[in-house]
Amino acid sequence: MTEKTTWLVVYTASRQEKKVAVMLERYQIRHYLPLVKKLRLWSDRKKWVEMPLFNGYIFVQPKPSERDQVLQIPGVVKYLKYNGRDAQVSSREIELIERLIEKGYHLESGVAGNLRKGDKVKIEQGPLKGIEAEVLKDADGSETVWIAFETISQVVKVVIPTDYIKK
Predict the structure, then answer these.
(1) How far apart are CA 100 and CA 160, in angstroms?
(2) What does the pLDDT read at residue 110?
């Protein structure tokens, strides 16, 4: 999917990610809005809906002439900053997010096994091969592998078979 090496991060108003993505598409500005399916419950029904993986964030690759145009789109608040500069996410990280979603990884449950909180692990098999992550324990004591995206201050919890992981 990616040609350039980095993506910028746009912060959107609450629940405006999909609307902003539609406008970016209309203006033909390269963007990526990672969506995951979640079960939503109402008093009279249940429904699977696509929700943004990162609330309030869309990744963009505007041409220099399109940079200010992005800020004019209704629902766009600003470019996210990191260390005083535009936050940049590498194409490798975007591809990782795409693989997580494409392969249907559950992004909120824990990982079973004999790992300890704080252990650094490397994923050795499967579509996430080569990724390094950290193990954290949830309040309920289950073990979880987290993949951190430091520049956007976000982490993703991933269920990975323990035989895919090496300390």
Answers:
(1) 10
(2) 30
